[in-house]
Amino acid sequence: MSQFLSKCDTSAIGDATAALINGGLVAFPTETVYGLGADACNEMAVARIYSVKGRPADHPLIVHVASMEGLGDWAHDVPGYAISLARDFWPGPMTLIVKRSGLAGDFVTGGQNTVGVRVPNHPVALGLLEAFELAGGKGVAAPSANRFGNVSPTTARAVTDELGDFLEDGDLILDGGPCDVGVESTIIDCTGDAPKILRPGAITEEMIKGSTGLDVLVANGVAIRVSGSLESHYSPLAKVVLDQSPLAGQGFIAMADIASGAGVIRLAAPSTHDEFARILYSALRAADEQGLNTVVVAQPAGNGIAIAIRDRLQRASRGH
Ligand code: TXA
Ligand code: MG
After folding, report:
1. Does 62 contact ligand 1 (Cβ within 6 A)?
2. What is the CA radius of gyration of the chain?
3. Is residue 226 part of a domain?
4. Which of these, 40, 148, 251, 294, is most buried using a 10 Å CB contact count?
């Protein structure tokens, strides 16, 4: 058990708020994955996120706020369709990329003139963000709470395994149980005439179209472009192989109706796509815990969250 780990009682929210105000880092649960948070207005604190994650400084962070009102603090020139998305899907698994206000420093946006903003739908995250804003804070910058390039954590234990060696006195990990959605938020670029999906997630193209009445653009390919580079990402140590027959001794993740052969190590057998998303990252972590060389995944077909699952799997299969 890590010295940083804290159960989410009311005193923990107070401690975590104080940690943020004092420039510390707080890992907290959201409905998607765990985030590693810092006061988004504190340059030194935000710099520590990058060093703890081992993340390049030009990769922008998402600012988490307690409510839609926070969008006005961090953004300007927000288009009507973005307001409509915020009304319909916040709190929820959706990040809006908007033109930044003066509040959003280069140290949060990676030097871009836009900023990512999200209101997460999780009682612990919202409790923390509300307490932080009551204490005078404006927002919490938080990437997923994993080392750069690794699988995002969906449990507090996974956060401890990823970052426990890199945290310092005064930092905290709030344990809010396993995350409900399991894959990261849908990222929507709202700087053009129509919404553009940069990263698929639980808020789908159909939902965005339904909310805005606009045709939705989807970024080229499946990867997000950050500072001109395409990443492979979300990778366990084990080699991820897609849509092949697993051999004895290999890990296997597939829908429950797909059987596994003799000697195959079945890591997960979800019966719905929502469940697939929820357990995917912990199943990939289990492959590493069991020291497996290879994990075969049968990609789920169809639309909805299956698109986000395939996006993450294709990047995981490209390795580190
Ligand atoms: O579900 C989530 O979004 C989680 C939870 C913790 O909220 N956060 C998360 O953060 O996945 P992170 O940093 O691991 O991934 C955010 C992605 C990065 O690839 C980053 O490049 C992109 O969002 N991003 C952030 N701000 C951006 C901006 N202004 N323009 C383009 N992309 C941006
Ligand atoms: Mg991440």
Report:
1. yes
2. 19
3. no
4. 40
